[in-house]
Specification:
alpha+beta, 20% strand, elongated
Amino acid sequence: MSANGVGAAVRGRRALSALVALALVASTGVLVARSGWWPAAASPVGVGVPADYRYDPAHPFRGTPAEDWAEGSAGIVPPPAGPLVGLTSDEVANAYDRVRAMLVTARLDHRSLLGHDAEPALALFATTYRAHARTAVELGVNADAVLTRIAGDQALLPVAPRVTGSMRAEVRPDGLLVVRTDYLFAHAFAYPDPDGVRSPMEVVALVRHKADYLVVVEDADHEQLWQETHSGYAYSVSCEAYAHGYLAPAHSVRGRSAESVTRNPRPLTLRYFDLDRVTEALAGCYE
């Protein structure tokens, strides 16, 4: 790192604690208001499910765009790293690796998904940010910004989630390195009566996480990671569970019976599978 880069990193590190804490508190405040009142947004008209659709638990993503996405961590692939202002290619590559490790741990690791253990993901963050994020998870407020947790009364199918998205690094005008990420994760849930499923959207839950991560590079082997911003949406899920920081499939929505699952198959709304859609325009929860 150049002398200018070191100076920027030191100045940035001193300011980050207050900056990130303020951002986390601000976003948490919004979700506190929502936690007691989280209306499901009205879904746009969807694509009808083909008449010949047959649910196969071994291939639950069939009939959705997620069928063609990469499996699990193979869907989180950093671009080739090049030098940036004040940073070498190796330093940028290390930043990509740290962000990727955090995403895999927070979004795909069974310790987070099924064990609801936030510590493996939190351990990859800077100490100061870690404390604030841990509090958010413990309170169940904005916890989905930190990690994904499957609702305790739901079971995943033994197939890898499908993932698509991208990340890119840039140096901000204040000299801080930011890695901007935007990913879609599709999870497949079990259903007690496979013969009764008439739409993949009864068992496939989709979540989008768009987040910026600040990486303070101290040297070639040491970086400090903070999450600066987070936005996204959930589609074909239980919004009641999502409001409390848990992921559950559409068939678990309160009041949805086995008969309605069979007789009224959910349409497939393609816009939610499209990363080119503006995240903020779709922010929220869509059952």
